[in-house]
Amino acid sequence: KKSAGIAVGALVAVAAIGAGGAWYTGNQLPTVLDESIKQANADMAKTLPALGLDASIELLSLERHFLSSNARYRITFNGSLDGDEPRQFELVINDRIEHGPFPLSRLKAFKLMPVMATSNYALESNPALEKWFAAANGKSPVEGQA
């Protein structure tokens, strides 16, 4: 009886720490996303002009929930890689962000190291990408986890 009580107490403590951690990382997320986007834009501004391109990322939306958040980003490219007339091209990325320290997808994969968040991203369809999505049987041809 005593060991069962200790085990239940330990599970409750771990669950409380996980829930508190998820709440904390969810609250930190807007600031971290903003800084990450600023850094990515600065990095692209340094490297892409040498290729005849410029690009920027912007956060379109962020819906925060207790254990996860949903974000949408727009990446805008201007320029030409092949010497043709410069043009603008946009991609939208959907991102399901699981709050740490122990995101469910990482636990399912037995990745037990704590992290701030796990990003599950996928390219959103648009008319310019129809053929690419069709070739991927209607699924996003670009998706992953970070």
Concise synopsis of the structure shown:
The protein is α+β, with helices and mostly antiparallel strands. 39% of the residues lie in helices and 32% in strands.
Summed over residues and divided by their number, the pLDDT gives a mean of 86
Q: How does the overall form come out from the CA principal axes?
A: elongated
Strand residue percentage: 25-35%
Rg over CA atoms, rounded to whole Å, is 20 Å
Q: In terms of per-residue confidence, which ranges show pLDDT below 50 for 5 or more consecutive residues?
A: none
Structural class: alpha+beta
Number of alpha- plus pi-helical segments: 3
**Span between termini:** 42 Å
Helical coverage, percent range = 25-40%
* Total tally of structural domains: 1
Outline the structure in words.
The chain has 146 residues and is α+β, with helices and mostly antiparallel strands. The protein has one domain. The protein is built from three helices and five strands; from the N terminus they run H-E-E-E-H-E-H-E. A five-stranded antiparallel beta sheet has the order 1-2-3-4-5. The radius of gyration is 20 Å and the shape is elongated. The protein starts with a helix and ends with a strand. The relative contact order is 0.12.
